[in-house]
Automatic annotation (TrEMBL):
It comes from the Bacteria. The keyword Oxidoreductase applies. It comes from Planctomicrobium piriforme. Residues 34-164 form the Gfo/Idh/MocA-like oxidoreductase N-terminal domain. GO terms for molecular function: nucleotide binding; oxidoreductase activity. The keyword Phosphoprotein does not apply. This is Predicted dehydrogenase. Keywords: Oxidoreductase. Belongs to the Gfo/Idh/MocA family. InterPro entries: Gfo/Idh/MocA-like_OxRdtase_N, Gfo/Idh/MocA_oxidoreduct, NAD(P)-bd_dom_sf. Pfam families: GFO_IDH_MocA (PF01408).
């Protein structure tokens, strides 16, 4: 009897060993994904590089490496000009090649992440990357307007280049749990999200930082917002959206007092809240997967609607807080 058990155990160990070897071989044979960064004036650039290039990398980032970077920078934006040299040195010290142009960059990489902190430069930078046929992820804010984002997506479609943009909050595990059945909420009937909402020179109010909370709102509610009303004070924005099915979603942008990232979801089965511990790895895993498959995890239409929501909120503020149709914001961009 013991002999039979020992024989079966030995056979199982052989099978396990072979399977492990096959998995290791498959990983070894998968070509390295060479990634380039455009724009080193954002704290996201060194953070992304550290996460992706770490030998003890997060599961899902194996086989990817940031190998080259173009500094870029905006002289008329202090938050860019004051940090560019320091972040560039940080990446150079990590052994990442610093190049003098986007054209030089794309010749050395398979895919590109635009991390430029200035949303104004994303359109020309994306245009150069798309022309080279490289898969592209654009960090927040995708652009400073719906019109510019639509132009990027149109160019990408014409050149058959996969492209997407997102806030890291869309992939936060705490938010995804609220959205899924395991969160205990059921079908979401409404929600409130919040995030810091600092503003910045040359950028529409919500585009700079409020986009994190707005993207969280759309992650939970989905697309389909019809109108937006915005109340703005020195310390906060209160933005209320009405969806076409009658659901209501609210974003609170915080500029004074205690701040943070989170949401409360109201559903058919319960009410639950989540505080988000910001981490880039979940989004980076999705980016690497996208670079390998070419399948964007966020629909183009939803990204455009997120931007249109923010444009409508700004227009509502200008008009004293009256509701503004999101469709009108998209139409005005055409």
């Amino acid at each position: 009897m013991m002999s039979v058990i020992a024989h079966r155990l030995f056979a199982s160990l052989i099978v396990l060993s072979l399977w492990t070897g096959l998995c290791a071989t498959a990983l070894a044979e998968e070509p390295m994904l060479r990634i380039g960064l455009v724009g080193l004036d954002s704290s996201h650039a060194p953070a992304f590089a550290k996460a992706i290039n770490d030998p003890q990398t997060h599961p899902g980032l194996e086989g990817a490496k940031i190998v080259a970077a173009f500094p870029g920078g905006s002289a008329d934006l202090p938050v860019s000009a004051d940090r560019l040299a320091g972040f560039t040195k940080t990446l150079a010290d990590q052994g990442i090649a610093i190049v003098g142009s986007i054209d030089e960059l794309v010749s050395q990489v398979d895919a590109v992440i635009i991390t430029s902190v200035d949303g104004r430069v994303h359109l020309p930078q994306a245009t150069a990357v798309i022309a080279a046929g490289k898969k592209l992820f654009i960090d927040k804010p995708m652009t400073n307007s719906v019109a510019e984002a639509d132009e990027i997506f149109t160019l990408a479609a014409q050149h058959k280049v996969p492209c997407f943009s997102s806030s890291s909050l869309r992939f936060a595990p705490e938010i995804l749990q609220l959205k899924e059945k395991s969160g205990g909420v059921g079908a979401i009937t409404g929600c409130v999200t919040y995030s810091p909402c600092a503003t910045q020179l040359h950028h529409p109010d919500l585009f700079w930082y409020g986009i994190h909370g707005v993207e969280t709102l759309f992650t939970l509610m989905g697309p389909g917002c019809e109108s937006v009303a915005c109340i703005r004070t020195e310390g906060a924005d209160e933005v209320v959206g009405v969806w076409k099915d009658g659901r209501v979603g609210t974003f609170r942008g915080i500029r004074s007092g205690k701040s943070g990232f989170g949401a409360m979801a109201f559903g058919t089965a319960g009410i639950a809240s989540a505080t988000v511990k910001v981490s880039y790895e979940p989004m980076l895993v999705e980016i690497v997967k996208f670079f390998r498959t070419g399948a964007p995890p966020v629909a183009t239409g939803e990204t455009l609607e997120v931007l249109a929501f923010m444009e409508a909120a700004n227009e509502s503020h200008k008009q004293g807080g009256i509701p503004v149709f999101v469709k009108s914001a998209q139409t005005a961009a055409k």
